[in-house]
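To start, one record:
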Amino acid sequence: MTENNIVSIHARILVVDDDEAIRDALRVILEDDYDVVCVDSGFKAVEEIKNQVFDLVFLDIVMPEMNGIETLKRLKAYDKNLDIIMVSAVDRAQEATDSFSHGAYDYITKPFDHEIILNRLEKVLLKRNLAKEVSFHKSQAGSGSGQSKIISKSKKMAAVFNLIAKVAKTSSNVLITGESGTGKELIAWAVHNQSLRKDKPFVAINCAAIPAELMEAELFGHEKGAFTGAHKQTIGKFEFAHQGTIFLDEISCLKLEFQAKLLRFVQEREFARVGSHRTIKVDVRIVAATNTSLDEMVRQGTLRDDLYFRLNVVPVLLPPLCSRKGDVPLLAKFFLDRFNRQMNKSIKGFTRDALAVLEAYSWPGNIRELENLIERMVVLGSENQFIDEKDLPFDLLFHRESMKGSQDGTWENKGLIQARQSFERLYILRALQNCRWNQTWTSNLLGIHRNTLMQKMKALDLIREQNDS
């Protein structure tokens, strides 16, 4: 056992036997690889189970005061998921039958064979670990978590990729910053997948989605009866992430009162479940993310500076989509292909005019906004047709551009000219389509001379496409 009531994530074994020689023999077999606690009666075993967490119990059948079968009943009544191996001096069929009928996992006889003990124990622990993984993956599937490809050819993202490649091989904490929708979780996945932890769990925690009063129990887990509604022991996200990566998204949403507890975990990689005094140590890599200025939060006193410095060992700044030159067409095609597959549709692609509008837009919602738009276009699009400028939402043409960095007024004039040309082109295009490209009808509809319409069509590069009827 480790000192100061701190145990590792190694399995914790309870040995219950009134014979001191048997307790010592089991301790010698197990203590090199497991945390072992020994007691000499069923009553003490029940108290230990109430106060501490165990992965397995070795329980003697023949004991004074309270025998093994009665102890088994009480232990299972308190924790039905507890695995118990019954121990008997002789191999009796009735004892084995009674043990299994009351929930025992296995039945072994004395004297002990070293290899048999370890093999039975390993089977129990493998079963428990698989059950934990299944439970965790079900929760992840329900929350829609997962990973996707990172699509980019921009120089700014190339610099991010180079930084990821360097930091991934270490265990240093990483802080990812960037606007909402820039793909911070994908970067966290990239760090995990390029690390030595790639075959271990990646546990994503959205700090903004968890109520403050539930944060500690969600992350650290809790014991049965720790609070109202805690009907069973629950493993926390940090424990699930052992040997893997923890992704703390929206770290700026954490309340000050919880930050001190998180700081201890970040420093020591240890925690105690809610309702328990036993500290559990884990080996994890921490990747945090935020779309707000943590420096400003530190100045305002809403974020502990010591927590910030612990998380910000390797900073990764994600550029907004509007500054990732050439990435919009790549991402648009990627999302189009994905939603075509998901919806069993066959939208062919984008016209040149549609791509021009997409590239000119500032994308304040970044990649997430682009993804949502393409999904809408596929839902509304016609089979075997291209997405054209006329199919795009009107607000893409008349978006509010950032004024940052333009003090001489030239930017505003350029933006106004582009906006006017975009509006004029779209307005005339839709009039032509409504009039089936009959120029006389269209000029009458617009209230301009036919020659003026022809000049506008030439200047704005308005040409009827074969699929535009």
